[in-house]
Amino acid sequence: MAATLKRSDVSLYRQLDALLREQIQDGGLRPGDRLPSEAELCARFGVSRATVRQALDALTREGVITRSPGRGTFLRRSERPAVQERKRQPWGAFIDAAAQRGVFLRGGVAKPPLVVSKALQLDEAIEVPFAIRVLGGDERARMAVKSYVLPSLQALVDDSGRSFAAQARKRGKRLRAGKAWIEAILAEPRFAMMLKAPLGSPLLSLWWIDHIDGKPAACHQMVMPGTAFAADLA
Fold first, then answer.
1. d(CA 89, CA 97)
2. Which of 43, 47, 145, 218 lies 20 to 30 Å from 124, alpha-carbon distance?
3. What confidence tens digit (pLDDT) does each residue in 79-96 have?
4. Keywords on this record (predicted)?
């Protein structure tokens, strides 16, 4: 978790918050792991105790970590999810929802999962541009969308929060939906943090491929709480 916080337009506590989240997403911390103490974080990043507390408070409010007086701060363990009323929606509405403008969370260029390399017909060693957006707008984020695109289409994923589909159509490119599939998964720390969902709660992971000019152009993964949605396949 070694990194340097810089004086910039982004407040120090938000920088620290982002570093801790990245550590969780990358698997550096596991449920039940103890985080460094406030004093250790202050010394490591050269910030005040007030800055550290602000960052930890934000993670605590979202249920990512728990703080126990006298024991320390821990990455939250899985908990039994509450049963929620499910909302039925047409199957196509899920993919249509991904075209909405969301909040940009993270992006860059990285080696994708093997399923993405195969979907885009690329060698598995090739790195591709990606962007992660969160959609919802209420207290609890409802969907997270991670889009991987061909290196030649990097301009179609940026930090604007706009979807790949919207960016492509803006440039006059015609998209055609390709293969789509769905999986049931449990909320790991990275998804729990993005969706503000309890660790270990059921999630739906919907994958689909977009084609341009008859060739795979992008592969998307949309993750949503499994207890909140039901698809109508009729």
1. 11
2. 145
3. 444 444 444 454 455 566
4. DNA-binding, Transcription, Transcription regulation
**86 vs 54, more confident:** 54
On whether both 124 and 66 belong to a single domain, the answer is no
Quote the crossing angle between the two packed helices 49-61 and 38-45, to the nearest 10°.
Answer: 120
Which amino acid does the sequence have at 163? Answer: S
Output DSSP code: residue 112.
P
Please, what is the Cα angle at 198 between 195 and 202, to 5 degrees? 80
As given in the structure block, the two tokens for residue 115 are: 């399923």
Measured distance CA(170)–CA(99) in Å, rounded: 12
State residue 114's pLDDT score: 95
CA dihedral 88, 92, 98, 100 (to 10 degrees): -90
**Structural domain for 94, as ranges:** 87-232
Residue pair 185/168 in contact (Cβ under 8 Å)? The answer is no
Q: Which residues pair with 148 in a beta bridge?
A: 130, 219
